[in-house]
Amino acid sequence: MFRNLCVPGYGHFLGFRTPSLGPKMTTPWFAAVRSLSTARSLEGFRTIGTGIYLRDIQEQCQDTKSPNVILIFGWLGAHTRQLRNYTSAYAKLYPKASQIVVQCNPDLLWTTDNARSRKLKPVIDALEALHCLPSSSPAQRPARILTHVFSNGGSLQMTLLGHMLQRKYGSTPVIGSPASTLILDSCPAAGDLNSIKLAVRTVIRDPISRRIVLAIVHTIYSIRFGLSLLFGKQMIMLEKLQIEMWNPRILPWMGLQTPRLYLFSRKDKIVSWQEVTRHAETAKERGMDVRCELFEESAHVAHVQVEPDRYWSSVQEVWTVAAKGRSED
User: Fold this and answer.
1) Are 302 and 268 in contact (CB under 8 A)?
2) Strands of 52-55's sheet, edge to edge?
3) What's the rounded Cα separation, in Å, for the pair 172 and 47?
């Protein structure tokens, strides 16, 4: 059950709110980071929002042992060409499954929660259309949902979506008892200032833009850290994220019995494998169904490049557990 148990993903990591930058902000810094939003769409997908893509399979999946909806949250700064490695693999493994892909653009570093929520609204619309939410037609079979999250950036997007769904639907249960699983690639971890700065350097290549962002990061992190010591509260967003990720119902179709798979590496310089291990251990202690794959040589969000067979076998195995457990209920 516990195997080998012992970024860029730092958007909104400091928990601060930034003022609106306005539509006229056209400096090279913002132009560069916004380019991800205007990048070429994923092949076989249609764009349904800024950095949000849908592969809608109209044909109803008769294979009740496979997922029929796959929800992917990319890491901070991931291009569509990088995410295509995963969407293509999923299309081969589960060809009848619809896919929703959510990019995590670098503007996550300075946009407000309200702005981020507006950007995620198309995800809710797509989930409703795919019968994943309480408002779905009772005549439809419950969706079988595989959620794949990359790094802390993807985790922040997923938890924000969870808050949005909680506000909209409250504790209303999803129709039926959908099979579901949660794949966590290179996350979660609170990290420290050095790892956060490394993540920023990885995402933002322009030297001038990078200096500006690093100066903001250093200043705000220091202020929030001081406030945390002064008031004894979680003032740094990634520390709060770790706590939120222990919620078995992060998304409304999940629960204690939802298997989660942690994929992480000893060579990850951005997210510490020890932190991920501790998170997984605590999740298990809280009654969750946890599995881990600890890689030895891969870098951050690069495990599939080093050991693709092991990576995808682990994903398939944990989905098989989810589907089998649901069929026995």
Assistant:
1) no
2) 46-49, 52-55, 98-104, 69-76, 145-150, 180-185, 260-265, 290-295
3) 29
CB atoms within 10 A of CB 118: 13
Bridge-based pairing state of the strands 290-295 and 260-265: parallel
User: Cα–chain-centroid distance for residue 77?
Assistant: 13
Distance between CA atoms of residues 78 and 257, nearest Å = 30
305: CB partners within 8 A, 6+ apart: 298
| Angle value at C-alpha 193, between 301 and 225, nearest 5 degrees | 130
Q: What are phi and psi of 184, to 5 degrees?
A: -115, 105
pLDDT tens-place values along the chain, 329 residues long:
444 444 333 334 434 333 334 444 444 444 444 444 445 678 899 999 999 999 998 776 667 889 999 999 999 889 999 999 999 999 999 999 999 999 998 777 667 889 999 999 999 999 999 988 876 555 566 789 999 999 998 999 999 999 999 999 887 666 556 799 999 999 998 765 566 666 666 666 677 776 776 676 666 656 555 544 454 444 445 678 889 999 999 999 999 999 999 999 999 988 999 999 999 999 999 999 999 999 999 999 999 999 999 999 999 999 999 998 765 55
Helix, strand, coil share (%) of the chain residues, nearest 5: 45, 15, 45
**Cβ atoms of 284 and 251 closer than 8 Å:** no
Place of tokens 């809608």: 56
Helices 308-327 and 80-93, packing angle to 10 deg:
50
Contact 144, 180 (CB under 8 A): yes
Q: 167 is written with which tokens?
A: 């506000």
Give, for 46, the enclosing helix (H) or strand (E).
strand 46-49
What is the distance between the terminal CA atoms of the chain, rounded to a whole angstrom? 20
Q: What does each C-alpha distance from 57 to 25, 44, 94, 139 come to in angstroms?
A: 38, 10, 11, 18
